[in-house]
User: Fold these one by one.
Assistant:
Number 1:
Amino acid sequence: MQQQRVLGGRYVLAGLLGRGGMAEVHLARDQRLDRLVAVKVMRPDMAVDPSFRARFQREAHSAASLNDPSIVAVFDSGEDTAAGLPLPYLVMEYVHGATLLDLLRDERGVAPRRALELTRGVLDGLVHAHAHGIVHRDIKPANVMLADDGQVKVMDFGIARLLEQGGADLTRTAMVIGTAECLSPEQARGERVDARADLYSVGCLLYELLTGRPPFLGDTPLEVAWQHLREQPEPPSARVPALDHACDALVLRAMAKDREQRFACAADMRAEVEQLLQRVTAGPRPVLAAMAPLDGAPRPTERDSGAAARRGSGGRRRGRRVPLGTAVVAVAALVVGVAAYEAGGSPTPASVAGSATGAHQLLTPDLTGASLPGARAELRAHGLHLARVLVGGCPEPAAAAHRVCQQDPVPDSPVGSGAAVTLRLAG
């Protein structure tokens, strides 16, 4: 019988809840207080990077300072060892439920009243966080939990910053902090952010809840970031005609390019949501196209930040949704391109970073049997990037555990430089 692992001499790991880009989340029992908790353990290959460890500690300090039912609580933090390497961990409130990303995938869209109620719950958490001087900076469906009792809970304060600190150590040339699909224009420019950056992201989240897809889609994070900078989103009612036009006004104000034109604070936006709830009734549920399984394999559960993060897909431009699991979008060309644009030029994402369908054709490598770190390094060496990681559902039941058993595109497929590859690992 395999011996259960105990972290910090206190937390007995009982089972894997989910995997994210930099950590795994386990269900655990706190032996001292005899209660179930969720323990977020940084992957050993990530823990050797001081910047990731600093982000991990930032999440502990930011979330632990907040005490609100709309925010996933952090109870403790510590560091263990694995094969002689440091293994930081966070001990969090165990929330039995799903993320809003799960909701979008499983329910194939959200009725307007429900979308507004969920948004109000997110804003409840942000009102509390902002009152304590903390800007989340990565609000997105995968970072919002919906508990079984209906409580909305904001989680993953890994890149949150105190307002007076301004995030200068993280927001610098060649590194733009946030997830591309919910990135405020000021974040994309690498500027100092305030609470209104979170409100822009909430507008993006509400947009997706109302329509079943993000406001902007593209083949790369860079392309999506450029759209946040330069393009106006279509009103939600252009995609779901039955929506009340007051929903359009709410979303478009939250997503104003100029933050001075957004809501002044989360409380103001919440008040507008509550007023709109009084007039909006549950309307027809929009259809959300689901991503087809790879080669007909069973659809597995994909995890992000400790909860299921199964992703839908939408169809704009080339119908590609950039990966949501990466919280730090590092695009050096973006800052250069913004400077050129603001100086009077008009560079396009293709001219800055190269088009995924341009002249530089590549063939995808065969990653079957590779470990995840090895596959990631191989993709990087070929000028490609990892889009998503799916766990389980391999066509070959005997596939080696934690090794790549399937990929999309398949090996030797012609792709453009910077193309995204989805991997499936054996559970």
Number 2:
Amino acid sequence: MTTKTILIIGTYDTKDDELNYIADVIHSQGGNVVTMDVSVLGNPTDPTDYSKHQVAKEGGSSIRSAIDCGDENQAMQIMGKGAALLSCRLFNEGKFDGALVLGGTMGTDLALDVCSALPIGVPKYIVSTVSFSPLIPPERMAPDTQMILWAGGLYGLNSICKSSLSQAAGAVLGATRAVEAPDRKKPLVGMTSLGKTALKYMVTLKPALEDRGFEVAVFHATGMGGRAFESLAAQGAFSLVLDLCTQELGNHILGSNISAGADRLTNAGSTGTPQIVAPGCYDLVDIVGWQEIPKKWHDHTTHAHNRLLTSIVLDHAERSQVARAHATQLKQANGPTVLILPEGGCGEWDRPGEGLHDAVGLDVFLATLEKEHPQNVELVKTQAHINDDEFANAVLFQVDKWLTDGTISNQVGQA
């Protein structure tokens, strides 16, 4: 087995013992290590492979500038920029196979920059005292970042934190040995959806697109899934986008913390990626199911999906607001954009006879979106429900049209 090398990043002036312990574990498991210091004020006990001065210089600054700014937040952003750029360059030069960044809130802030800079498929682990915390906004998370809670690790080594640190060391080394990097042999389609109880078009569309020569990745549009989707769209990873569940946009503009970020429904357009959009489950805002329902939603119908997630059913004014937000986001698109409006409904629970059916609310939403949609967006209406075969056929009709006219291609490197 080829020996793998792990890049370890941290503030070696204050966390020397912890970082060296991680390195020792990796070495004991047959891995190699390169080290990067992102301290500002102090120095490591022993020199690292990449010094804090090299890090700051890579970002176009210096340690003196970081110190003189007199603000630890600004200073760490200087180091974050340099660490991200240096890590990316070193990976491209083949200097390491995976990365592990350790820190508290300051180190985690920097770690998020580093992980976002590295390509998908590069094992990247953040060991943090605030792992999984709501302090971390979804838009800062790289699609394949792994986090491990650094329990008992605020100051110094102990048996509790060694348990976390040793697992992290083994995890990142194991990941470099096991990872299967993304296959670029087929053009990739990015699709958004929810579970099959709410949205079912993926069952038809995925094999149909694969038959046409594409690889298809379906993203679960429940906040973090949409974040991963938008991150990859911003990188130009997709040859075609089928953004058929835009429910996270409503989450964001109506104040839910289950958000994919303010740039939801914009990144495919900003890179010019051809996209087909439909407002799957637009009528719902998801909230954390185990928390008390906020007072502003007390007069709304709710749907408890499970103990983790509860959906709020939007009133007519809110549906108009969400429709206008769709138009605002899509107006920024630079590439071919088709918006399909399923006049039969946009989620399994809004069919006639189902508990969330609201024909007037659907008409309000569709009428607003039809009126407000920007000129750069082609509007297509279908009488079908979004879960009907007719809807999937409408999507495939547009895909085939673009294949025929050369807007998209099922061959890598074309169109």
Number 3:
Amino acid sequence: MNLVSLRIITDDAQKLTDFYEKITGIKAVRYTPDFAEIKTPAATLAIGSTRTLQFFGGDHIARPAENRTAIIEFLTDDVDGEFERLKKDLPLDLIQEPNVMPWGNKSLLFRDPDGNLVNFFTPVSKEAVEKFRA
């Protein structure tokens, strides 16, 4: 089995897609105004509007902007550089400036426009670097 995608349901797919394009530097594939994908080498971040829930049985399936448990994580070569870039380019809902975690990653934590947690991280300890070595 292979995890290939994570989908965020939102009231404003265009706005959220624009945000993820800006933070990742990856151009989204916009299939419709209600569905887009940010494709990375490891997995895809899909963004769907609430209108797409009709294909799964209705609006009660998921509620946008109510996530309080998941963190969307992106591995980057330079979390400090990304932090400086994001501070210049976007108004960030910052949770934590780059800080080294006990498991060896330097982590930057912020929220997307819907309130979902986003983590940019760079492995810095020997063990973390080995774990993510390609």
Number 4:
Amino acid sequence: MSGTEFEWSRGERAKAAAKLMVGWVALLWLLEVVDVVSGHALDGLGIMPRRASELVDIVPAAFIHFGFAHVAANTVPLLVMGFLAALGGLRRFAALCLVIIVADGLGVWLIAPDHTNTAGASGLIFGLFGFLLVSGFVERRPLGVLVGLLIGAVWGTSILLGLSPLQTGVSWQAHLIGLATGVGTAFWFRRRPATPRALTQ
């Protein structure tokens, strides 16, 4: 691949990642508008723990929020971290997000306190944070390491606060499970170097 083709490919990948994340966030806002107009009918798609009927809500819960302030709080980190993670390829990103959402939802279903309803994109955000934080080190990519360090510097404090059990009205369980899953996916989805071809002489 020539330098020009590489730049074109990288530029197209960035455009695709940007379009995906803008569309994703727009969907979250649209769903919240529908929720408000419908008298919060979508809030029932959150996860209520240890009820068999709630297992079908594990994926939808990641797209539902409890008010516009909730969506707004998740918008910028999801846009930025999602865009950076999607630069590695949309198929890989889709698989990464699916694993985080499902693992996080199952974890919440198992360990969240009784009589709670958990929803929102923050579990995914914590997962993307964990993935970006360590994937550069796992793959030994200097640029990835730099991205991880920058993400840690910008959002590290808020991530740590989000893990505190002392916060009321916040699912620290979802945050913790999302973060742990994200770190795990950095190993699961790591890019392996190509095997050198054997040449005779």
